[in-house]
Amino acid sequence: MVNRIIACLDVIGDFVFKGVNFKNIQPVGCIYDIAYKYYLDSADELVILNINKSSISSYIDILRKLSSNIFIPITFGGNIRTSNDVDLLLNNGVDRVCLNSTLYYNSNILPYLSKRYGSQCIIGSIDVSNISGMWYVYIDGGTKRTNILLKDWIEFNESNGIGEILLTSIDRDGTGIGYDIDLINYASKISNIPLIASGGVGCFNDIESLFSLTDVNSALIASYLHSNTNSISYIKKRLSSSYCVRF
User: Would the CA dihedral through 225, 89, 194, 139 be positive or negative?
Assistant: First the structure.
């Protein structure tokens, strides 16, 4: 099985930002420059997250321009509310969509979307934080805690046709202290569909630990790449001695 390195861009319009624990976001650079750099550097996929709830229509020109120059899968998430939003994205350069809060506010939409577009096209984004030893699901960009436990939300996503889950540890996001291996292993035991791990990469060993200590083969990375001192090709070159990767 191929181990994937997925570059993540948190965006407001055509600019990339990054924060810590979903807060204190700081500008990183232009989306076109950063996305194209990651494409040339052998990223397996590009995940673009609309973090300020801008309208989907406001991103169409950006996505068209990106998809005309970047020939790897593009996933888009953030403020996708209706099937019309999904249609608009898929018709303008996006390969997959990533849904989070919408699944909480409108749970009936998921079975419809999965049947209409296919489960492979729909990613369920789950943001969690550990509260007194329990992983609770958060929505609205990590600002609102629900009473839903991770186990129950994974089961809901799976039973309604999600094809893959993007699991983000809010506690680790942007910290550089490594993935939450306990969280990922816990989720892997529950889930029967692929997981993408997110939150906490600070060094190469964090990525290697993800692949060696869990069953997950997809690593989402943001801050570690944005620092401009760490390249995807370097990561893959080091991984290639023990894992199957694409260049």
Answer: positive
The average confidence (pLDDT) of the chain is 96
* Token reading at 140: 């609205």
CA distance 123 to 94: 13
Query: Which residues carry out catalysis?
Result: 10, 127
> Token pair 């969690």 is at which residue?
128
Q: Tens of pLDDT along 21-40? A: 988 999 999 999 999 999 99
Helix (H) or strand (E) holding 135: strand 134-139
On whether the pTM is more than 0.85, the answer is: yes
Residue in 19, 92, 18 with CA at minimum distance from that of residue 56: 92
Domain extent listing, the chain: 4-239
H/E segment holding residue 25: strand 23-30
Is residue 240 within 8 Å of 232, Cβ to Cβ? no
Which stretches of 181-221 are assigned E, i.e. beta strand?
195-198, 218-221
- Three-state secondary structure call for residue 169: strand
pLDDT of residue 191: 94
CATH 3.50.50.60 fits 4-239, yes or no: no
CA-based nearest residue to 15, from 69, 54, 70: 54
Return d(Cα 187, Cα 181) in angstroms, integer.
10
Q: Which pair of structure tokens corresponds to residue 16? A: 């990339």
Chain position carrying tokens 């296919």: 118
| pLDDT tens digits, 190-234 | 999 999 999 999 999 999 999 999 999 999 999 999 987 789 999
228/95 Cα distance (integer angstroms)? 27
